[in-house]
Each structure stands twice: as structure tokens, then as C-alpha cells.
Amino acid sequence: MSAIRQASPRRVSVAPMMDWTDRHCRSLHRFISRHTWLYTEMVTTGALIHGDVPRHLAFTPAEAPVALQLGGSEPDDLARAAKLGEQWGYDEINLNCGCPSERVQRGAFGACLMNEPQLVADCVKAMRDVVSVPVTVKHRIGVDTVEDYAFVRDFVGTIAEAGCEVFIVHARNAILKGLSPKENREIPPLKYDYAYQLKRDFPQLEIIINGGIKTLDEVEQHLQHVDGVMLGREAYHNPYVLADIDARFYGSTDAALTREEVEAKLIEYCASEIARGTYLGAIVRHALGLYRGVAGARGWRRILSDSRKLAKADLAIFDEAREYLRVPDEILE
């Protein structure tokens, strides 16, 4: 048990995912797992310096622990944004050095920063100088045709010298030209051994592995080699995969909530959010996978995806959707 207590709080985390891991998504994930480390969507420094800060940074204390992922490449701007993140209560500031989208490239940050390790080190130092929470980096293992392990080893080594102690390694290359962000999550081959080698080469650092991981058995296998595992799309499309994490990886003795209990909490959350003027569909879209694998889940999803019903903001929609559960899909068809 003591080994579990001493383990990284990021032993299991859910990846920052654009358009997905907003505060409603994180609230759902937190109903299912008390300990899984959660990340925001990427927020650019420009959005915080020139935009609506509360809209980008407000979250409920119940979501904690939550890390704020920043996108940017100017040390001063990142320092300002990191300081805001700490003031708003985030538990970690993470720098995105892995996103391959053209929009991010035009801003000269994301994965293209891997080609400028000293700049990343300067960014990390600038943030660390103004915040007391951990500053971490999420990155790929290479860029475009660079396949040599030495590239990512030297990148991590340079940033570690600036004081960064936590690296989240998406174990694929980022292809900056010719592949979409979606293709970049699927086509470049996974090289988990690169992340394992980083841990061997930098045993003092905390190395988190990310990319294509779908089951808790896989999580357990990776934890034989690295300090933590980050789940991505699987946690979004199948959120109940998080249900056993607290007991299995954090030593919790509390019983996990059933899907029905999670749904009940979600309905309470929806009621409070509707009272604040939130569109019901903005919340429910994150929960469509809650009953994945349960008979009738397709019917449940269909009702909760009906924009006309959602527009009425009537929580009876959940009762209607629940009528389909445990009805074999072939009957629905």
C-alpha cells in the first residue's frame, strides 16, 4: 500500500483533448474517478492575455485535481498565462509541444517546438519562475522523418536542465505536413520503447506515456516501465473505463459508482448548469459513451443526441433514454 501512496499523482490521467475535455467532460470523469488526473483542453496564451479569462479558466473545485494545458511559444506570455492558471486554482501547468495542427503551427507552437528545445527550456524556466505548481511538458517522440531516439532524448535533457521534472510522452512522431491531427493520432507508428528508454536514461524524471492505450491491463503493463499512463480517446468514448482506476492504481477502498449512480450525479449537475443558462446538449454530449457495451446503449445515445429534445432542457430526456437500456440492439433495429 505504501508503494501506491508514494506513486505519482499522475499515475493515471486523461489527456487534454481539444473540443472534448471541457469542464463538463471533466465533471463527468470526476464522478467516475476521484483520483484520475485531469487536463483542460489546450488554451492559448493569446486567449488568456487578450480574451475572456473566466470563460477559459473557470472550473468547479469538485473537478480537482486539474492541470491547465497552455499553447504558446513566447516565454513572457507563457509566464503571464501560467500565473493566471495558478491564481485560478490549477494544480499543474502543462506546455503543449505535441499538437501537429496547422493552426497551431501557424502560431509557432505545439509539435514544431520540438525543433527548438532551448526555446522550450526558456519557456519552462519563465513559467517556473512565477508559479509554485509543477510545470510539465507534453511532447511527441519526433517530428516528420526524424526517427532517431537521440532526438527526443536530447529534447528531454535540454528541458530538464531548465527544471522540468515531468514529461508526458505521446509515443508517436508528429507529421507536420500531409497528415491531419486525427491522422497524426493514428498513422505514425507507436514506439512505446522510446518512452521506456527515456525513463531508463532519466530515472530522476517522471515519465508519463500516452498514445493508443485502451485498457487498464495495458495501463498496468506500462506502469512496469514508466511512472504514469495517460488515456486519450478511450476515456472519452468509454468514460466508465475510469471506474476501476481508484482501487486498482491509487489504493482506494471506496466502491466505484455504478453507471446508474454516475448518471444520477450527471442529472443533478445538468440541473444546476441549466439553471445557469447552460445548453443541455453541451453537457450530455460528453456522456454518450457512459453505457458503452450495455444492451440498448445505442437507443440511449440516440435519445440523448436529439437536438430538438435537448433544446427543451427537460431532464425527463434521461428517463426516456433509460427505457432503451437492456433492450438488445437487434430489437431496436
Automatic annotation (TrEMBL):
Q: What is the required cofactor set for this protein? A: FMN
Enzyme class, broadest EC rank:
oxidoreductase
The DUS-like FMN-binding domain extends over 14-313
Q: Keyword NAD: yes or no?
A: no
* EC number(s) recorded for this UniProt protein: 1.3.1.91
Q: Name one GO molecular function term.
A: tRNA-dihydrouridine20 synthase activity
Q: Does the keyword Oxidoreductase apply?
A: yes
Ranges annotated as spanning the membrane: none
Q: Which Pfam families match?
A: Dus
Task: Give the matching SUPFAM superfamilies.
Answer: FMN-linked oxidoreductases (SSF51395)
Active site, renumbered = C99
Q: Which UniProt keywords apply?
A: Flavoprotein, FMN, NADP, Oxidoreductase, RNA-binding, tRNA processing, tRNA-binding
Q: Which InterPro entries match?
A: Aldolase_TIM, DUS-like_FMN-bd, DUS_fam, DusA, tRNA_hU_synthase_CS
Site (described: Interacts with tRNA) = N96, K182, R185, R298, R301
Reaction equations catalysed:
5,6-dihydrouridine(20a) in tRNA + NADP(+) = uridine(20a) in tRNA + NADPH + H(+); 5,6-dihydrouridine(20) in tRNA + NADP(+) = uridine(20) in tRNA + NADPH + H(+); 5,6-dihydrouridine(20) in tRNA + NAD(+) = uridine(20) in tRNA + NADH + H(+); 5,6-dihydrouridine(20a) in tRNA + NAD(+) = uridine(20a) in tRNA + NADH + H(+)
Matching entries from PANTHER family are given as: FMN-LINKED OXIDOREDUCTASES SUPERFAMILY PROTEIN
Q: Which family does it belong to?
A: Belongs to the dus family. Belongs to the Dus family. DusA subfamily.
Tell me the protein's name: tRNA-dihydrouridine(20/20a) synthase
Q: What organism is recorded for this protein?
A: Paraburkholderia guartelaensis
